[in-house]
Q: What sequence folds into this?
DNA sequence: CTGGGCATCT
DNA sequence: AGATGCC
């Protein structure tokens, strides 16, 4: 990634199978505090995750074969089903054929999986902040510090042994002495797996090794609910065992194809292939990385993941080919997305719409997307206003983006729609005394962390009982401060926040600095498509026009401007407010209403360049930036809702709070918004249940 | 009859 | 914005 600086002098090639030796022998270039010679990395991989979550929710499912279904695919299944030949990513037809009694559970709504997933991550983080998520069911953890500390305080009188399996070894006790750190790591892994089981109710595998690549590869060697340690002397064994290059994490389908074109098929082939030739194909950094991976060498740090940088909802389908259906699907997706965003608490600055068009050839890789900034007042509605209002106001933006990609006057055929919020900004202000991040970390985390392991030091990481400071309460309610802070952005990419004694340990590649909100170039989504004429409005039935323009549809609220009140019922927009029903595994059907719309509509950017210096055209009616075409596509009730919004907003324009026409470089009003703040909520993801 | 997310890099 | 990779 960013090892570009020092790749030149490397002698990786020569170091072959013994990365540890190579690293420790790096006395050659002892520039500064480098990454530790030997790290201890854990990789956790929950067993058939979605299926497990469903079995936790409904224990009766444990005894029957279940398959988690998304569309026509069984994305995963429990072990009962696997015994009968069902596998991951098997088509529904094949699965039913293998196992006619297979019980299907719809897994298209990821809510519960996401919640459980974050509970696990948070639990791990309570032991050590260096936790990196990979998907919903995997976590890497760098426990080097913890191990070193324990090693230091343990008088070595310890009779080390490994917990669980040791790759390619059958007498686990013998070699423990030679690898005390990994042996300790195996005990920590065992304890953490037990904690996950007792506190979250999930089982999983763990791999213990000296880097992420190896930890991940070894974790899968003994499959359900077991763990395996990989010793340095067996690195070449595990790499050589891989059946194909694409089994190497980091080498995907496309890369495998390119390597194959070079005549490389096995991991060995890649190990022995001249680096120079590889460089020609992939460029320096990538070539070196690929070669290293083949050798089992991976310096990439465990980078704390923190809160997600984007939230999205998508749905795939056979065919959507009318604007009306697009609109309805977007409303449905947005309703869910806005609710999630609200729970998150951060305010999205960017909205993106992605589509996939049908094409017989190469069906899978044609996604197109367009994005636009989210005006502040709408962003605020998302986080602290009515989610219905937020959806109503976002829909026009979505439709606008849609029209940038699709000419709806000709036929089109979509097979997927995705809506996404990104550039998430913390709201919240201030930094306070007691609750401030600083005080939290200095006084709690640090000592707590120390205690965690010292307390169990005696008999070596014994039972989990109350060994660590985090109890259920922490997870369920108090998570807030700690997890948020620890996970949250600003500090996130920097060294482990918590003051562990050897910061340089991580070599912190701050590659991705927190995007500076001030900098976001918001490419104004300007430009009215040539085909959007205001004429559309006139084509509407007269009565509808009147209806829309009539003040009767708007509420004249006291100018005190409280958040808007819906004039019309938009409750249908909220699909599932609380997915909480712990009941059956019903396949929720996508309900739907559908006021077919005819009528009118708004466009986009409030901050348009030259045109209209007033957001609103005179009089009542539309904001000046309204795109009639888009507006016309909205259902009447949504149109009314919008009209109502506009009415209410109008007076507010005079207040300084609203952005003025001159957008200059924007930024101005931003600094107040979020800069130094901290609190955000990551912990929403760790919500209890 | 191949999900629904996420992330990073260019 | 798109490609790619991972689950």
A:
């Amino acid at each position: 990634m960013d090892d570009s600086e020092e790749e030149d002098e490397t002698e990786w090639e020569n170091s072959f199978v013994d990365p540890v030796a190579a690293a420790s022998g790096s006395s050659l270039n002892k520039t500064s505090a480098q990454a530790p010679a030997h790290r201890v990395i854990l990789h956790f991989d929950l067993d058939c995750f979605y299926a497990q979550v469903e079995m936790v929710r409904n224990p009766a499912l444990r005894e029957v074969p279940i398959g988690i279904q998304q569309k026509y695919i069984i994305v995963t299944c429990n072990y009962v089903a696997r015994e009968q030949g069902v596998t991951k990513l098997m088509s529904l037809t094949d699965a039913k054929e293998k196992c006619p009694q297979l019980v299907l559970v719809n897994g298209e709504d990821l809510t519960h999986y996401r919640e459980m997933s974050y509970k696990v991550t948070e639990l791990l983080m309570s032991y050590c902040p260096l936790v990196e998520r990979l998907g919903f069911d995997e976590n890497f953890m760098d426990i080097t510090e913890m191990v070193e500390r324990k090693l230091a305080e343990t008088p070595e009188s310890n009779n080390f042994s490994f917990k669980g399996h040791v790759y390619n070894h059958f007498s686990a006790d013998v070699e423990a002495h030679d690898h005390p750190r990994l042996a300790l790591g195996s005990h920590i892994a065992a304890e953490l797996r037990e904690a996950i089981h007792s506190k979250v109710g999930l089982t999983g595998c763990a791999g213990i090794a000296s880097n992420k690549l190896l930890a991940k590869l070894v974790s899968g060697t003994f499959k359900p609910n077991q763990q395996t340690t990989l010793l340095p002397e067996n690195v070449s064994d595990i790499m050589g065992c891989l059946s194909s290059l694409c089994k190497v994490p980091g080498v995907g389908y496309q890369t495998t194809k390119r390597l194959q074109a070079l005549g490389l098929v096995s991991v060995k082939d890649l190990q022995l292939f001249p680096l120079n030739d590889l460089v020609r194909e992939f460029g320096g950094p990538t070539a070196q990385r690929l070669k290293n991976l083949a050798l089992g060498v991976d310096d990439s740090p465990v980078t704390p993941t923190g809160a997600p940088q984007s939230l999205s909802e998508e749905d795939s389908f056979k065919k959507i080919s009318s604007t009306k259906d697009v609109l309805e699907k977007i409303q449905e997706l947005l309703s869910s997305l806005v609710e999630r965003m609200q729970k998150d608490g951060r305010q999205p600055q960017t909205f993106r719409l992605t589509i996939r068009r049908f094409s017989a050839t190469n069906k899978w890789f044609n996604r197109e997307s367009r994005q636009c900034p989210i005006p502040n007042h709408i962003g605020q509605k998302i986080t602290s206003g009515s989610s219905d209002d937020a959806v109503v106001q976002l829909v026009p933006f979505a439709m606008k983006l849609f029209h940038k990609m699709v000419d709806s006057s000709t036929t089109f055929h979509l097979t997927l729609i995705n809506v996404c919020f990104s550039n998430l900004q913390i709201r919240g202000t201030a930094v306070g005394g007691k609750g401030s991040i600083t005080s939290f970390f200095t006084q709690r985390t640090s000592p707590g962390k120390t205690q965690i392991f010292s307390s169990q030091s005696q008999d070596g990481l014994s039972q989990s009982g109350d060994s660590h400071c985090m109890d259920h309460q922490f997870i369920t309610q108090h998570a807030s401060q700690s997890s948020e802070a620890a996970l949250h952005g600003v500090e996130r990419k920097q060294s482990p926040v918590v003051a562990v004694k050897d910061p340089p340990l991580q070599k912190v590649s701050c590659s991705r600095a927190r995007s500076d909100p001030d900098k976001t170039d918001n490419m104004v989504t300007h430009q009215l498509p040539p085909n959007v004429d205001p004429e559309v409005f006139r084509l509407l039935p007269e009565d509808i026009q009147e209806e829309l323009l009539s003040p009767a549809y708007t509420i004249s609220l006291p100018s005190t401007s409280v958040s808007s009140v819906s004039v019309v019922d938009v409750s249908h927009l909220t699909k599932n407010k609380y997915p909480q029903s712990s009941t059956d595994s019903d396949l929720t059907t996508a309900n739907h209403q559908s006021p077919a719309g005819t009528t009118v509509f708004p466009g986009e950017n409030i901050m348009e360049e030259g045109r209209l210096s007033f957001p609103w055209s005179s009089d009542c009616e539309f904001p000046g930036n309204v795109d009639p075409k888009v507006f016309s596509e909205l259902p009447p009730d949504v149109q009314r809702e919008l009209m109502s919004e506009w009415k209410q907003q109008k007076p507010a324009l005079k207040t300084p709070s609203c952005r003025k026409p001159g957008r200059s470089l924007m930024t101005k009003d931003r600094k107040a918004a979020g800069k130094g703040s901290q609190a955000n909520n990551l912990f929403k993801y760790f919500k209890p249940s």
